[in-house]
Design brief:
- Keywords: Membrane, Transmembrane, Transmembrane helix.
- The structure is a single chain.
- The protein is mostly helical and about 100 residues long.
- Helix content is about 40%, strand content about 0%.
- It has a domain of about 45 residues.
Length: about 100
């Protein structure tokens, strides 16, 4: 919401509110059907059908403290074999195209 309301935004919001109230009063079903459809879509999104038949039970695992007898060793990194590829650059001082 803007901090300051100018005259044009007040007029637009007032006309919008009047139009919505007038539309609801004249054609209740035209507003009711989209609201119901959007509500059903929201409910299906919130509670999908694949979770309807199952109850989710959360089993608590007993607390087991894990201790390490030997410290972990870092795996040795494998050195990549680098090779120098001889280039085919000519040692001419003259440019190819002149």
């Amino acid at each position: 919401m803007p901090r300051r309301w100018n005259a044009s935004s007040i007029v637009v919001l007032t006309l919008l509110a009047i139009g919505i109230l007038y539309g609801i009063g004249q054609h209740l079903t035209s507003f009711l059907i989209p609201i119901i459809v959007l509500g059903v879509i929201f409910l299906l999104y919130k509670y999908p059908p694949n979770t309807w038949g199952t109850r989710v039970r959360v089993r608590q695992q007993p607390y087991v403290r894990q201790t390490r007898t030997t410290p972990r060793q870092k795996p040795k990194s494998r050195r990549a074999p680098f090779r120098v590829i001889d280039g085919g650059k000519d040692d001419d001082d003259l440019p190819k195209y002149h």
